[in-house]
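Supplementary notes for students who missed Thursday's class. We covered one full example, reproduced here. Read the sequence, then the structure, then the short commentary at the end.
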Amino acid sequence: MHELLSVCRDNGIQTRVVDCFLDVDFSLCENEEKFMEEFYTLHLAHQSLQQWFERLQNKDKGENAAVLEILIELYKKVLDLEKKIQGDQKKLIALDSKSVILGLGHEVMWIEKDVLEVGKSYYLRFVLPNFSDRIIAIFAKALSKNALRVTKMHSRDIQDFDSYVVAKEMEKIRWQKHSKREEDE
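Structure (token representation):
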């Protein structure tokens, strides 16, 4: 992912970059208001459950955090199934383009298609595969035809996004250690 690192250096951004493969939908964002309702709605859907989880965790003093988190995930899945059965799914805004995120760093990403207009703003939506898969919506500015810098993202999403980058870094380090051991044998 040296290309993203190069673009970051050229723009004064210091970050580490990890390889990934995440589907992403995006549109040129000439009118931010058009996307703001969805941006906040996606966040609020997750935030209410997150607040409930944190209250329970505080009452429990964190002793059963894993069990509580699993219960919340099951609850989310039951809610999703209920909405599908009732035909009550929230429709997401149709975005103009699809691509794949091939590289991530803190506040930056690299998409496969070189279709971005440098300096323009974009609205993007992708699923971050943490324990709790959920749709992340962000606003970003194109640094190159493939590179984007995040300009607006919810604080909880930033935490999960950065955690995902760190987890991918750790995965890469473990893989490199394992590969080195195999070479030494």
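Commentary. The chain is about 50% helix and 25% strand. The longest helix spans residues 155-184. If anything here is unclear, bring it to office hours.
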